[in-house]
Amino acid sequence: MKKTIRVFLVTTIIFLSGCALFEETQNTINYANEATEYFNKLSTFADETASLANGEVNTEALEEKLTSLEQTITEFNHIEVPELAEGIHQDILTNNEILLEKINNLQEDGQLAIEELQNAEIFQTIDSITSFMDQIEQLGLE
Protein backbone atom coordinates (compact mmCIF):
# COMPACT_ATOMS: atom_id res chain seq x y z
CA MET A 1 0.00 0.00 0.00
CA LYS A 2 2.81 2.44 0.90
CA LYS A 3 4.56 1.56 -2.33
CA THR A 4 1.42 2.34 -4.34
CA ILE A 5 1.04 5.70 -2.62
CA ARG A 6 4.69 6.55 -3.30
CA VAL A 7 4.35 5.63 -6.97
CA PHE A 8 1.19 7.73 -7.18
CA LEU A 9 2.90 10.72 -5.50
CA VAL A 10 5.97 10.48 -7.74
CA THR A 11 3.75 10.22 -10.83
CA THR A 12 1.72 13.23 -9.70
CA ILE A 13 4.85 15.29 -9.06
CA ILE A 14 6.26 14.43 -12.50
CA PHE A 15 2.93 15.26 -14.12
CA LEU A 16 2.70 18.61 -12.35
CA SER A 17 6.29 19.46 -13.32
CA GLY A 18 5.42 18.71 -16.92
CA CYS A 19 2.38 20.98 -16.71
CA ALA A 20 4.52 23.85 -15.43
CA LEU A 21 6.98 23.35 -18.28
CA PHE A 22 4.12 23.24 -20.78
CA GLU A 23 2.66 26.44 -19.33
CA GLU A 24 6.00 28.28 -19.56
CA THR A 25 6.42 27.11 -23.15
CA GLN A 26 2.89 28.28 -23.98
CA ASN A 27 3.58 31.67 -22.33
CA THR A 28 6.76 32.04 -24.39
CA ILE A 29 4.91 31.25 -27.63
CA ASN A 30 2.15 33.71 -26.71
CA TYR A 31 4.75 36.39 -26.01
CA ALA A 32 6.49 35.72 -29.32
CA ASN A 33 3.17 36.05 -31.14
CA GLU A 34 2.28 39.31 -29.36
CA ALA A 35 5.74 40.73 -29.99
CA THR A 36 5.53 39.80 -33.68
CA GLU A 37 2.16 41.53 -33.94
CA TYR A 38 3.64 44.59 -32.20
CA PHE A 39 6.63 44.72 -34.56
CA ASN A 40 4.29 44.43 -37.55
CA LYS A 41 2.26 47.39 -36.26
CA LEU A 42 5.44 49.44 -35.84
CA SER A 43 6.58 48.59 -39.36
CA THR A 44 3.18 49.46 -40.80
CA PHE A 45 3.23 52.78 -38.95
CA ALA A 46 6.72 53.55 -40.27
CA ASP A 47 5.76 52.70 -43.85
CA GLU A 48 2.53 54.70 -43.80
CA THR A 49 4.03 57.67 -41.97
CA ALA A 50 7.15 57.84 -44.14
CA SER A 51 4.94 58.34 -47.17
CA LEU A 52 3.03 61.06 -45.31
CA ALA A 53 6.24 62.81 -44.31
CA ASN A 54 7.54 62.84 -47.87
CA GLY A 55 4.38 64.24 -49.41
CA GLU A 56 1.62 66.59 -48.45
CA VAL A 57 0.87 65.97 -44.82
CA ASN A 58 -2.61 65.53 -43.43
CA THR A 59 -1.85 66.59 -39.86
CA GLU A 60 -5.13 65.25 -38.51
CA ALA A 61 -4.47 61.76 -39.92
CA LEU A 62 -0.90 61.88 -38.66
CA GLU A 63 -1.98 62.89 -35.16
CA GLU A 64 -4.42 59.96 -35.11
CA LYS A 65 -1.65 57.58 -36.18
CA LEU A 66 0.68 58.92 -33.48
CA THR A 67 -2.02 58.60 -30.80
CA SER A 68 -2.75 55.05 -31.92
CA LEU A 69 0.97 54.24 -31.86
CA GLU A 70 1.31 55.59 -28.32
CA GLN A 71 -1.55 53.35 -27.21
CA THR A 72 0.00 50.33 -28.96
CA ILE A 73 3.35 50.96 -27.27
CA THR A 74 1.75 51.35 -23.84
CA GLU A 75 -0.25 48.14 -24.26
CA PHE A 76 2.84 46.20 -25.33
CA ASN A 77 4.81 47.55 -22.37
CA HIS A 78 2.29 45.90 -20.02
CA ILE A 79 1.97 42.42 -21.53
CA GLU A 80 2.90 39.34 -19.53
CA VAL A 81 6.53 38.44 -20.14
CA PRO A 82 7.81 34.88 -19.70
CA GLU A 83 11.06 34.46 -17.79
CA LEU A 84 12.90 33.41 -20.94
CA ALA A 85 12.11 36.75 -22.65
CA GLU A 86 12.72 39.15 -19.76
CA GLY A 87 16.08 40.41 -21.06
CA ILE A 88 14.84 41.03 -24.59
CA HIS A 89 11.66 42.62 -23.30
CA GLN A 90 13.66 45.02 -21.12
CA ASP A 91 15.66 46.10 -24.18
CA ILE A 92 12.42 46.66 -26.08
CA LEU A 93 10.98 48.68 -23.17
CA THR A 94 14.06 50.92 -23.19
CA ASN A 95 13.62 51.59 -26.90
CA ASN A 96 9.87 52.06 -26.43
CA GLU A 97 10.56 54.85 -23.92
CA ILE A 98 12.81 56.55 -26.47
CA LEU A 99 10.09 56.17 -29.10
CA LEU A 100 7.44 57.63 -26.78
CA GLU A 101 9.75 60.58 -26.07
CA LYS A 102 10.20 61.19 -29.81
CA ILE A 103 6.44 61.02 -30.34
CA ASN A 104 5.94 63.57 -27.57
CA ASN A 105 8.58 65.81 -29.18
CA LEU A 106 6.60 65.66 -32.42
CA GLN A 107 3.59 67.05 -30.61
CA GLU A 108 5.23 70.14 -29.10
CA ASP A 109 2.86 72.64 -27.50
CA GLY A 110 -0.14 70.94 -29.04
CA GLN A 111 1.25 71.48 -32.54
CA LEU A 112 2.53 68.71 -34.74
CA ALA A 113 6.17 69.33 -35.67
CA ILE A 114 6.26 67.93 -39.19
CA GLU A 115 9.90 68.93 -39.70
CA GLU A 116 10.81 66.68 -36.73
CA LEU A 117 9.05 63.78 -38.40
CA GLN A 118 10.95 64.38 -41.60
CA ASN A 119 14.25 64.09 -39.68
CA ALA A 120 13.45 60.37 -39.50
CA GLU A 121 14.71 59.86 -35.94
CA ILE A 122 11.41 58.22 -35.10
CA PHE A 123 11.93 55.77 -37.97
CA GLN A 124 15.43 54.90 -36.75
CA THR A 125 14.00 54.10 -33.32
CA ILE A 126 11.30 51.91 -34.86
CA ASP A 127 14.00 50.08 -36.86
CA SER A 128 15.94 49.60 -33.66
CA ILE A 129 12.91 48.05 -31.94
CA THR A 130 11.96 45.81 -34.84
CA SER A 131 15.54 44.50 -34.97
CA PHE A 132 14.60 42.36 -31.95
CA MET A 133 12.28 40.34 -34.20
CA ASP A 134 14.84 37.59 -34.90
CA GLN A 135 15.50 37.11 -31.20
CA ILE A 136 11.76 36.93 -30.46
CA GLU A 137 11.20 34.41 -33.25
CA GLN A 138 13.87 32.18 -31.74
CA LEU A 139 11.99 32.17 -28.41
CA GLY A 140 9.16 30.26 -30.04
CA LEU A 141 11.54 27.72 -31.59
CA GLU A 142 13.60 26.77 -28.53
How would you concisely characterize the structure shown here?
The protein is mostly helical and 142 residues long.
What labels describe this entry?
142 residues; 0% strand; mainly alpha; Four Helix Bundle (Hemerythrin (Met), subunit A); single chain
Structure description:
The protein has 142 residues and is mainly α. The protein has one domain: Four Helix Bundle (Hemerythrin (Met), subunit A) (Up-down Bundle), CATH 1.20.120. It has 6 helices and no strands. It starts with a helix and ends with a helix. The model has no long low-confidence stretch (mean pLDDT 76).
Straight-line distance between termini: 41 Å
Q: Using the coordinates shown, work out and report the CATH topology.
A: Four Helix Bundle (Hemerythrin (Met), subunit A)
Tally the helices: what do you get?
A: 6
CATH architecture term: Up-down Bundle
The mean pLDDT is 76
Which stretches are poorly predicted, pLDDT < 50 over at least 5 residues? none
Rg value: 22 Å
Structural class: mainly alpha
Helix share of residues?
over 70%
Query: How many beta-strand elements?
Result: 0
Helix and strand pattern: HHHHHH
Q: Which shape, going by the Cα principal axes?
A: elongated
Number of domains: 1
CATH class group: Mainly Alpha
Main β-sheet, in a few words?
Answer: none
Strand percentage, roughly?
Answer: under 5%
